[in-house]
Model the fold of this input.
Amino acid sequence: MKRFSHYILFLWLVTLGGTANAIEPIPQEAGWSGLVNIGVAYFEGKTNMVAGVDTVSIDIGNPVIDSLSEEPESESFGMPQLNLNIKYTFSTQTQLFIGSSMEDILQFDTASVSGVRQQFSDRSIIEFSLVSTPIFVPVQVWQDPYVVGVERQETDRTSLGPRIDYFNILGSGFGVQYTQRETELDEELSGTTQLSLTPAQAQLLDREGDVKRLVGYYRFPPIGRNIFEVRLSQRSDDLDGKAMSGDENQIQVTHVYLGERFTAASNIFVGQKDFDAVNPVFAITREDDTIGLGFVLLDKKLFGSKDWYGQASAVWVDLDTNIDFYDASSTMVSVGAQYRF
Done:
């Protein structure tokens, strides 16, 4: 129970931090396994770039803005939560899986992850998977975010790409992950509606292209009831618009305390991103600083059953840029129940 609970907490904490997913050990027995998490969440955030999720009636950004020189307004709402992770294990410790996660809370970017993983005799695990936008809940962004005084129009943003993860390398606490996703918008009209930009200038604002992320991490041996993990990541947004492209470096530290009944985990991460070209709207090159905090509390004896876990979590992420228009923040608090089978 203790081992399972700390892997679940790492799974949640690193997902909330917007980096790699943890991989739990593959059982030797063949058969189905997994978890279902249901709950409710309160979300508060601000962004000028994300509109919401139309299929579940979630509105995040304000459709009408008064100025390009101001920070976005804050929005808040409640929403249900459903997370799935379903696996089938063969006797060879080969495992097929499909699940869901939140890749980046600032972008309200959910993802479906499906693939295959194999565990070896040294307990190392290698995973090959496909990461994609959920078919029925694509995130919506603004066709042209830079429209002022009238209602901005929404468009779907989707992404798809491969991921490889090598966990417990040669039986150690080291791991590495690489993900590459191609991002597409149904209608990308940035800077073409109201602004007097040349076609070449408007092209600099294009948000479509490849997003690549390389993560290296190390999980230290347990110290009593405490487990620590450090993650370093490098993200490269290689987009068609060079003013929207750039490289981000991030560091994250996660701590888990394993109690008899309650297990608590927390993390902190910071990141810095430099962009590749001068933004034609604001006449400067964008720079971002990101900081985030996450916390999860797990009750391993919910309802007096070994299969049910109670869960409460909180996450806060803040993006501060040298261009106020792109500032963003997200706060999410959730409670729920998790069923493991």
Remarks:
- The chain has one domain: 2-340.
- Residues 2-340 form a domain with the Porin fold (CATH 2.40.160).
- The chain has two helices and 17 strands.
- Residues 1-8, 17-21 have pLDDT under 50 and may be disordered.
